[in-house]
Design a protein that fits this description.
Elements: H1 3-34, H2 39-75, H3 78-95
């Protein structure tokens, strides 16, 4: 395992833990719908799930920038640097519909 991958183990563990909580929340929302619970309560839980997913997304993006992109910059490999930059631009353009 490389040094970069070893450094990401705690971040991956935290992201997986958050995703497991989200998974539980989604199952709970499905039960709420099956039980015909009040719409506002369902919508509140859906909003919480979206926020939790956004937090995981932010952490993964931060880790990508601080490890993968940083590694490409430090490597001096112009092609790798350009590829990582283009990946980020494409992701942000898609995410923010630029």
């Amino acid at each position: 395992m490389t040094e970069t991958h070893t450094a990401l183990i705690p971040a991956r563990t935290a992201s997986l833990a958050r995703l497991k909580r989200v998974e539980g929340q989604v199952r709970g929302i499905a039960r709420m719908i099956e039980e015909d619970r009040y719409c506002i309560d369902v919508l509140t839980q859906l909003s919480a799930v979206k926020s939790a997913l956004a937090a995981v997304e932010g952490e993964i993006l931060k880790n990508h920038a601080s490890h993968c992109v940083s590694h490409a910059i430090e490597s001096g490999d112009a092609a790798d640097q350009k590829a990582k930059l283009n990946e980020l631009i494409a992701l942000l353009a898609k995410h923010y519909r630029l």
